[in-house]
Design goal:
- It is found in: Cell membrane.
- With about 240 residues, this protein is of the alpha+beta class.
- It has seven helices and seven strands.
- The strands form two sheets. It has a five-stranded mixed sheet with strand order 2-4-5-7-6, covered by helices on one side. The protein has a two-stranded antiparallel ribbon with strand order 1-3.
- A hairpin with a 4-residue loop joins strand 4 and strand 5.
- It starts with a helix and ends in a 5-residue tail after the last helix.
- The protein binds adenosine-5'-diphosphate and magnesium ion (MG).
- The site of magnesium ion (MG) has 4 residues, from helix 4.
Length: about 240
Amino acid sequence: IQQEVLNSEKIKIVSEIAASVAHEIRNPLTSVRGFIQLLGEDGLEEGKRKFYQKICLEELDRAQLIISDYLTLAKPETETNEPIDLNREIAYIRNILLSYANYQNVEIACSLTDEPLWITGDKFKFRQALINIGKNAIEAMNGEGVLRLGAAGDLSGRIVIRIADNGSGMSAEQITRLGTPYYSTKERGTGLGTMVSFSIIKNMAGQIQIQSKIGKGTEYTLTFPGIEGPQAPAAAAEEKPVMP
Ligand code: ADP
Ligand code: MG
């Protein structure tokens, strides 16, 4: 009986998720359809054509993001466990966020050192987790501000990632609602981004700390267990400069 209850509960959740995927995807599809129709008009001026095309691409990206968030929800366990070169990944994530930041008139300041930083997990999921957090940070700034992105090792061998914005900030009550499904204060929000990010980070044995002040901004501190890089250079010790 217990198992049957669990199964029926699962089916209920799955059908709820399916219904909302359909709903979420329909919106961007409808607007893409409308703009493609406009693109077909005779004598369309160049500026408008570019504008319509830009919106279509954005809406398709939005649909894509919604789908990957839902897929992650449906299959949250991290199966892949590979070493992740954090310096590389942060640079990659910065580039992805950059076009979005430019569009929202926000700057990105990235601080990385040449210290090797390695963690372990699925790098595609890790990207998704950080991109969701970074996008929220950019959206919170309402067209003005700096997204700060950085990573460093601490003394106990853990890796600390910071993602900070000087955007709208959140109250303590709002922070507690982060990561719960469908919590969104945005007109076109899904309320799934943080839920997906948190589940990915927890699966990677990461910890999440959030500090925020209304009107000042928000700082995410993510802490992961560090690992030794795969090509730990054995010769490095000899190359160390000797104190004169
Ligand atoms: P969505 O972005 O679709 O609204 P999320 O789960 O990504 O859903 O975020 C949920 C809510 O958390 C947002 O609507 C917003 O109110 C709040 N939030 C998340 N990150 C920040 C941030 N950096 N600054 C201010 N509010 C935030
Ligand atoms: Mg979001």
